[in-house]
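Researcher: We're reviewing a set of sequences before deciding which ones to prioritize for further study. For each one, I'd like a predicted 3D structure that I can look through quickly. This is ATP synthase subunit b. If possible, include the structure in token form so it fits the rest of the review sheet.
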Amino acid sequence: MDKLINDFSYGLFFWQAIILVILIILLAKFAWKPIIASLSAREEGISNALMAAENAKKDLANLKADNEKLLVEARAERDAMLKEAREMKDTMIAEAKNEAVEQGNKMIAQAKAAIENEKNAAMSELKNQVSSLSLEIAEKILRDELSNKDAQTKLVEKMLGDAKLN
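Model: Here's the predicted structure for ATP synthase subunit b, in token form for your review sheet.
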């Protein structure tokens, strides 16, 4: 340290001070403005990037909320469609059952009508057969009774007697 103090030269100090001032002036005139401008541009770029990141984060949050809302709406719409489909299915089944019951009732009514028609036709045919059979029997009985003359006379007298009574 003693050597530094002993070797100190005012002339050298003066020129070094002048060179330092010139260097500071030159740096201030030519280098500091571009350095400060690049620093402020970098600072502005960083702040813009931070704001863009924050905006992107907000947009992402909004998109996520919108997606959740869309999911809720889609689920609600799906549930409504399923409910409507179930109701439609139940309605179709009920209509099919009602139609089947109606068709069954119609078929039963037609069968009853057919049975009744067949019964009436059978009864009519039976009556016709009974009446023709009765006529044949009566004819045979009358032939047998009217075959002899005494029986004919008795029958005529009996009928005359019955006719007077009525």
